[in-house]
Amino acid sequence: MPHLAPIASALLLSVALATPAGAALAPTELRISRAADASQARSTALLKRLVAQNSGTFNTAGVTAVANMLRPEFEALGFQVNFKPMPDSGRAGHLIAIHHGNGKGKRVLLIGHLDTVFEPDNPFTGFRIEGKRAFGPGVGDDKGGVVVILSALRALRDAGTLQDADIEVVLTGDEEEVGMPVALARADLIAAGKRADAALDFENISHQNGREMGAVARRSSNEWTLTVHGESGHSSGIFSKAMGDGAAFELARILAAFRTELPEPNLTFNVGLLGSGEQATFDANKTRLSASGKDNIVPGIALARGDFRTLSPEQTARVSEKMRTIVSRHLPLTSANITIEEHYPPMAPTAGNRALLAKLNSINRDLGLPELGEIDPLSRGAGDIAFVARDVDGLVGMGASGGDSHGPGEYIELDSLPRQAKRAALLIYRLSQTPR
After folding, report:
1. pTM
2. d(CA 407, CA 425)
3. For the chain, which end, N or C, has fewer CB atoms within 10 Å of the first or last residue's CB respectively?
4. CA–CA gap between residue 335 and residue 260 (Å, rounded)
5. Is the peptide bond preceding residue 435 cis, with omega within 30 degrees of 0?
6. Dihedral sign for Cα atoms in the order 398, 146, 172, 186
7. What is the spatial distance between Cα 385 and Cα 151, in angstroms, rounded to a whole number?
8. CA–CA separation, 137 vs 33, rounded Å?
9. Which tens digit of pLDDT belongs to each residue from 397-412?
10. What's the rounded Cα separation, in Å, for the pair 241 and 259?
């Protein structure tokens, strides 16, 4: 008798090891999973077409061309598709696709983007496959993510479950650099978030120590511009009652105070551009700075520009106020002004977001896939899902697995396309089967 327990345990272990992946799925879900697995060749062909078309954020014709490629893909699945031009924000526009289901289950918002960081003059071009990887501009961020969306939706259609699902897809044309004013550029996405019960973001899945991770939060992206003025004249008069400390030293004081007084958990801040002289100006996009002066002349103007990133609206407000307070403490005979532009809001880690990750991990267990941990939000940049984060629970990183995003070696793992499509399709299905 004492030997039966180990024998029984061994038998149970052998049965578990012999259980095929997907055995825990219901028959309908198994059909969805198999349909996603069968999609890789079609997904790779579409990805090649999308990557071959440059769609840098400022290449409005290219972004529109990508939208035109995708329109028939969604229409074939029964979606009502609209391309919303955004000339007043200086961007191409957004592709919005809506599928009306039975009106009973959770409404799901799928978020991706049409644009990339690679403008037409960038030398990184073309699409190539090396082994199990595909390389190309935007192959992961975010054209691979868009391909995953379509593959997931086709799997639902092929399994006969798409007709009941209420789904809205918003593919922005300016995720890499949002148009201005932000309220106009993101009005359609925000409205979609208010209609939804869950939002899924299809940028690349996160990794940590070789493990795929889930993301329930993203930090904000805020830009600041500092303009400093002081008395100008011969350098022999610096620090005198008549000359004061000059614009350069006032700028240095402010930046040094930022470094010592601002740090707190989940906050990062950076100086990206600075200069001073007798004259100093930014270009129209504030991405270049020109300054002129001499070593024996006290600078009359100093400029700096940078960003800061936060994890909650409250932190954004608190850090902004600290920065304004530091700027207000002027050195003698100087003045300074700071402007702060909130471009991407934060997506705070909430119980609702974590519940979505738990639901996805339930699917992972049923598929025989490893569960996803929760990655530190400092490891992810800002993104479009944050614009809907106040209105709806969300999950980040449903797109392809890859690396080197925004760089000349950007790639994805091709076998991640069906895997991510399978995860997404099953999550959308289970949400659509959950009463509102």
Report:
1. 0.87
2. 30
3. N
4. 21
5. no
6. negative
7. 21
8. 29
9. 999 999 999 999 999 9
10. 28
